Amino acid sequence: MFDIYLTLIARGLSTGAIYGLTAMGIVLIFQTNNILNWAQGNAGMFITYLAFFLLALQLPYPLVILLAIIAGAIMGGLVEKYLIRPVREKSRIGLLMITLGLAMVFEGLAAFIFRPFPRNFEPLLKGSIAIGPITLGQQDVLVIVLSTLIFASLFLILYRTKIGIGARGIAEDWYGARVLGVPVFTISLIIWSISFALSGLVGILIVPRFALEPHFMLPIQVKAFSAAVLGGMNSVLGAAVAGLLLGVMENIIAFHFPYLQESFSLVLVVIVLLFLPTGLFGKKTQRRF
Amino acid sequence: MILQVKDLTVRFGGLVAVNKLSFDVKPSTIHGLIGPNGAGKTTVFNSIFKLVPYNGNLIYKNIDMGKYPTHSLVNMGISRTFQNLSIFYSMTVKENILVGLHSKKSSNLIKDTLGYKINSEKELLEVSELLNILPYLSVYAMFLPFGILKMVELARALISKPQLILLDEPGAGLNPAEKERLKEIIKRIKEMGISVLMVEHDMGIIMNISDEITVMNFGEKISAGTPEMVIHDLKVIEAYLGEEIHA
Ligand SMILES: Nc1ncnc2c1ncn2[C@@H]1O[C@H](COP(=O)(O)OP(=O)(O)O)[C@@H](O)[C@H]1O
Ligand SMILES: [Mg+2]
């Protein structure tokens, strides 16, 4: 009986890592641009379609993953430069509409270009492995390993590089950072690129669990958003930890009450926010101009 | 002239916050900008940094700054502090100060990307010593008291070795001892050859260390000259009636 829980937890960690990666993208953009990126999930969906056709061209799977990450980075950069930047300092509400609209546009375009019927998408690794009493898909292990590496790199970038420290500055005080010479738009562009690259990677890694169709990322978006809020919306660490917690708890809930799986994350968010209004890791924010 | 303000006008909707304001800042001097609350002093600073749209000309060392974006000013040699503290609270004091070096490029792209630390240790120590914040370099800003954070903000503006620094109420919120030290620091900054344009509420500070003063009221210049001239100007006294004498 206990063994089942170990497996549930391990698989939950893999799901949670996916939520965590997506939540990190949402938090990075929220922190540097002060907007919610509703398109984080669907950007990944769109890139996954591109990957599907690249795979159909018999390109090697790892190369396709790499290309998808690059495509995500380019897409993120274009979105920042041509959709976000012109509005960034002018209209907060406009920005909100842009990312929501973008999410719909990705979905519509995918349905229009690729047709909306579900397609089967093979994972990179198909087998499963047993670690002691735990049985885990190889792809799940891959997800956990990759997300650990990505988290570590993001952390190094944010805390050890000039770009990262600049990004943290922007997150706390956009104008203050600008005045100090931080090229806020360039750094913002890099952040969008990183976020969309993450989104593309997430799409490819997770799509084999579902089927490829225009809204397969919706549950990921909702849960990643929940994780981001639970994590306090202000740190990639909070997003990662909350994502993992959510993944594990959800997996255990789903084992006992399958019908509650989808609504669980939102219920949890509401309950946590009732007691901890700034999330599990949030802190009160300062304000100045 | 290090800075020439010519016919500066700033409108917010129907409000004329700055109205045809002109004055010059001479090199290596301390220039005070004073006036009652809401006179438009901070708006002058915000215009110089392109944070608000303006009409008129802002000329820095014979260059019209009209087309230079906010984040390029540091490289031109201009920096500032804010009236309301602008601090990165989740960073250490050291990281805060190093952000002030962001636009300084090192010769090596990889070194440049990998952080400020490699080239900047000496500057960091110099400026921290001047501002008495050496003991706090590795402390997170959120744990430090206001008086020290004011010095951190000043350090951040100084580390880029500006030629012109704009201080918006550097003394606000400081206790008398801290204000005395601030006076000495600003005089040192001037001795380093840096020109200072300073808005300050505390008359003790402004009258004591300014070389020249421009007085504003309702967006307009109402008086200018040396501290002695300004403080005896009837228009200035009138503008301050009802307020305790402060800038
Ligand atoms: N961004 C802004 N939008 C609208 N009104 C502003 C803005 N900034 C300043 N003001 C107004 O302009 C006037 C001058 O403000 P300010 O320059 O801050 O005065 P001071 O620094 O001399 O106290 C005030 O009436 C203030 O309310
Ligand atoms: Mg002011």
From TrEMBL, chain A:
It is a multi-pass membrane protein. InterPro entries: ABC_transp_permease, BCAA_transport_permease. GO terms for biological process: amino acid transport. The keyword Cell membrane applies. GO terms for cellular component: plasma membrane. GO terms for molecular function: transmembrane transporter activity. It is found in: Cell membrane. The chain crosses the membrane at residues 6-30, 95-114, 141-159, 180-207, 227-247, 259-281. Keywords: Amino-acid transport, Cell membrane, Membrane, Transmembrane, Transmembrane helix, Transport. Belongs to the binding-protein-dependent transport system permease family. LivHM subfamily. This is High-affinity branched-chain amino acid transport system permease protein LivH. The gene is livH.
UniProtKB/TrEMBL annotation, chain B:
It comes from the Bacteria. Keywords: ATP-binding, Hydrolase, Nucleotide-binding, Transport. Gene3D superfamilies: P-loop containing nucleotide triphosphate hydrolases. One of its GO terms (molecular function) is ATP hydrolysis activity. One of its GO terms (cellular component) is plasma membrane. Its EC number is 3.6.3.-. The keyword Glycoprotein does not apply. Residues 3-243 form the ABC transporter domain. Transmembrane segments: none annotated. It is an enzyme of class 3 (hydrolase). It holds the Pfam family ABC_tran. This is Lipopolysaccharide export system ATP-binding protein LptB. It comes from Psychracetigena formicireducens.
